[in-house]
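UPAR/Ly6 domain-containing protein: structure tokens wanted.
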Amino acid sequence: MSSSTALLSLVLLSLLSSTAVCLTCYECVFPTISPLECQGFPKKCAAGERCLYSTATAVKDSVRFVLKEKSCAAASKCGIRGEKRTAGLVFSYNTQCCDTDLCNAAAPPGAPCWSRTALSLGGTALAVLLASV
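Answer:
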């Protein structure tokens, strides 16, 4: 591979990796109460937003309430746990996010999702290896 071709490849790869990538995430029209899963519809998120999956659980008189929500969210809304009192109930909530299209289809597994940054770095390393062959 000539040096000009390798340079052009690196410039194009750099431009592609720096372009803001907008995710498509499921978004619930209305949050739902268990045992039903909220019916999500695909939505294009704003640049920098992540796919969010949130659950809030409360128990009253041996009845368990679980609210579920899916949406696009700013990174600051991710990984939050806490309690909130509303309608005479104390809800324990947990928000988790992921970084691939439609990754919030169901409750996220315990393992973290690969971030777009990690995938981008892997792609860059592969391009450099291929350019040197």
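The longest strand covers residues 50-60. The CA atoms of residues 44 and 55 lie 22 Å apart.

Cheers.
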